[in-house]
């Protein structure tokens, strides 16, 4: 089990944190989100493929940031343009980091259970698709090791087939076996019941409530205009930080203080 | 009269793009409450019949299907596998890819959720299954973090939880240690005896199952004969070591269980076995000194000293999760220890050069389009002459040289992977569970290969649950428990001293007797 918290709490947390990242380009708020996403991940992570897939999300975030900033080089380069592109990139990267955290600490199948009955099938398909990332990561590691053990050093460029063929074939075979297994176990008969619906614990409810509060505060600033969410880049100026917004972001750190087992 | 649970009539089946039928005019009728064993060489049609029982053949495979299969009175051609899920459950050979959900408990409930079982009833069934297969401590774990044996038990529990009347299992004990295999067989027997379920399983390791079942299906090139286990085993000329002994010394009827053999042996005086197995050994090839390995907080090996010499075949034994695979990976130099020293030929191990390891999943090794090219890829990487044929011959896969590894059975793939790994000519060869899915012939070839390897002055370490393999090939047995070495010595002593790991000959004749050949020679 990855965590004892109700998956709904994680959905609320990820939506709240994602929403905050979506409405601001202020680097102070965004970097705070990175820090607390890491904190939450560090509290709830389990060693294994999920941890590696978190690192992949982190890598994707950094690449996104680099690419978005690098695009400026195609046009006029001046400090304002670069700063603007960097902050836009940082916003996208932050959303990726939040999603990576969500992916690493939740069981996608726990999330499927929350789907209403008629959405069960698409939700299950989505969860299976999500679980492919960590499985592939694990499979790549196995194959590299196995090839090394017979003297074939697998580098992605030189010996791609030695890596890609077993990974893809294993993936295909697993997919077929899984489809057979699901069918053989009655998937798609049209009747369903639900095993042990997880109940909301107090910490889970508190996490959901605080995450939604953070989102609401930021949305009200975005629509109400009572705080600066996009620091001016032309001319460049230091971002102003609003204590209320800092407090709202701090609410998102709550899961980091709740140990998995207690939920 | 007992109703028929499984009935196949005039069943023939040919896979798409295959010339030879996998099943050829098969007639089988198993009454409710049968405990049936499918046996026979690899590729003789066992898996195909098993998969025909719940309709995966032909609904998922395509191919040419003639005749009829009825399970619990339902025609499998008329119903998709999912519509048979309430009467028949299937546990495939490699359970990890059949898991749908992540948590053990959820996985157990999945089938019942699909059948719309009432939540209260579902909760009670899950608890029962957790107890029946000894899974209570694992209930919240992710299935991906479990050991092979634990996964097997989860898969069986998940299949049984849905409450089917018929349970079909493909090699259910191949990943289990001897104790784990007994647990599973006992649990299955309870389902048959107490609940009137019908169980059909395929298995190569007859010593683990022959004494439990009450009917056998003998497969030979797509044909099936049904009868009492003793008759079928006799006519197929296969069997557990006690049956081999019975044949060697001319006992009739051929014994199937240790108990049968003990009764038959009462009239034969047999002395004490000759001491030692007289093999010569040379210098140390590979060694661990004070090695500790940890995965996160879990310590997999604790301060282990281990050595293997030229000419030795060391069998590494111990229950699931004892640290056998970890020891092999540390010795192969792919898992750096937290502390301690690993030496192969006196220096840090060079994987693929001084030491080669065939992992438990041969699929991660195979990547070319033919069996022959698989071995050639190794030879090329090692800069050795391009001669694949001798390796294919040694492992007995030469007849598949031009076939795609994907089209082979699990056991055949394992042999191909072993050939590809051994072709490194590394002086230290490590094999992790080298007999999974191997039929007795293939196992015999592996034994001969290992003996030749050792006779060449090389060393080998095999991690195995297969006590009969260890009894017939090992020159030394090292027993692990909880990441520590608890026994290290002559097989006759280490295996003879164990309740769980004693081979059949030890059970019948006492410590020191390991193989039927050795006993037959002493009796002659």
Describe the protein:
The complex is a heterodimer of chains A (263) and B (524). Helices cover 67% and strands 0% of the residues of chain A. By secondary structure, chain A is mainly alpha-helical. Chain A has a domain of 165 residues. In chain A, helix 1 runs parallel beside helix 8 and helix 5 runs antiparallel to helix 6. Chain A is globular, with a radius of gyration of 22 Å. Chain B has a 6-stranded mixed β-sheet with strand order 6-7-8-3-9-10, sandwiched between helices. Chain B has 2 domains: 242 residues, P-loop containing nucleotide triphosphate hydrolases (Rossmann fold, 3-Layer(aba) Sandwich), CATH 3.40.50; 206 residues, 3-Layer(aba) Sandwich (Rossmann fold). In chain B, strand 1 and strand 2 form a beta hairpin. Chain B is of the alpha/beta class and 524 residues long. At the A-B interface, helix 5, helix 6 and helix 7 of A face helix 3, helix 4, strand 15 and helix 12 of B.
Number of DSSP-assigned strands of chain A: 0
The low-confidence runs of chain B, each spanning 5 or more residues with pLDDT under 50, are: none
Q: Which segments of chain A are poorly predicted (pLDDT under 50) over 5 or more consecutive residues? A: none
Largest sheet of chain A: none
Summarize it:
The complex is a heterodimer of chains A (263) and B (524). With 263 residues, chain A is mainly alpha-helical.
Please write out the topology.
The complex is a heterodimer of chains A (263) and B (524).
Chain A: H1 7-23, H2 27-44, H3 49-70, H4 79-105, H5 108-114, H6 120-148, H7 160-184, H8 202-224, H9 243-251
Helix pairs in contact in A: 1-4, 1-8, 2-4, 2-9, 3-4, 3-6, 5-6, 6-7, 8-9
Chain B: E1 4-14, E2 23-31, E3 35-39, H1 46-53, H2 56-59, E4 64-71, E5 74-75, E6 88-91, H3 104-115, H4 119-132, H5 148-161, E7 166-170, H6 178-195, E8 198-202, H7 206-209, E9 215-220, E10 223-227, H8 229-236, H9 241-249, H10 258-265, E11 284-295, E12 298-309, E13 313-317, H11 324-331, E14 339-344, E15 355-358, H12 371-382, H13 389-394, H14 410-422, E16 428-432, H15 440-455, E17 459-463, H16 467-473, E18 476-481, E19 484-489, H17 491-496, H18 504-509, H19 516-523
Parallel strand pairs in B: 3-8, 3-9, 6-7, 7-8, 13-17, 13-18, 15-16, 16-17
Antiparallel strand pairs in B: 1-2, 1-4, 4-5, 9-10, 11-12, 11-14, 18-19
Helix pairs in contact in B: 3-4, 3-5, 4-5, 9-19, 12-14
